[in-house]
Amino acid sequence: MARALRRETDDRLLDRVAGLFARHGYDHTSLQDLADAVGLSKAGLLHHYPSKQALFEAARDVGRTHSRELFEQATQVPAGRARDRRAVELLVDFALDRPGLIALESRAISLLGADDVDGDRLDALSQHVLSVFGVDEGGGDTERLVRVVGMLSALAVLSLAANQAGEKTAWRPHIIATCLDALGHRDPSHPEA
């Protein structure tokens, strides 16, 4: 029980840290900014994480761990429309619950191809994410790649807006429908279909 509580507390702290890195970039986020965001002194924060780089890496690692767990669940469903739906639902729930981590990953999406110092540190479209949605990064299915990147972008923007508006529950089904639409799976049961 104590271990699960510790992980949840660390995850929440790292979500806030990730949000700050996303907003200001690695180089423009100070240790004091990070400490203030999580309600600790700078020394208290450094007691748990020895450097700004360690905090950044821990935030990325927790995001990777959660995404790996989510995608392991999604890959239990055969590839195709049903897997896409399951992966989108899991991603939306995670995005609504962890806006800082999603903001950090969405920053990476917005920097694809840019010469930005954070671009080397961020890898939102890691191979396992693409493979869950049946995309081979080097393959020739440009339409599917564009749809998946579009879906991830929509998911990030909409989940962050839902968090900002305090409307996570109300927005959830609409975000899922929008993401599935981006993947080419129009949901006739959704009110906007």
Give an overview of the whole structure.
- This protein is an all-alpha fold and 193 residues long.
- The chain has a single domain, classed as Tetracycline Repressor, domain 2.
- It contains 9 helices and no strands.
- It has helices at 2-24, 31-38, 42-48, 52-74, 81-97, 99-110, 127-132, 142-165, 168-182.
Relevant terms:
193 residues; Tetracycline Repressor, domain 2; DNA-binding; transcription; mainly alpha
Produce the secondary structure layout.
Layout: H1 2-24, H2 31-38, H3 42-48, H4 52-74, H5 81-97, H6 99-110, H7 127-132, H8 142-165, H9 168-182
Helix pairs in contact: 1-2, 1-4, 1-6, 4-5, 5-8, 5-9, 6-8, 8-9
Domain HTH tetR-type: 7-67
DNA-binding region: 30-49
GO molecular function, one term: DNA binding
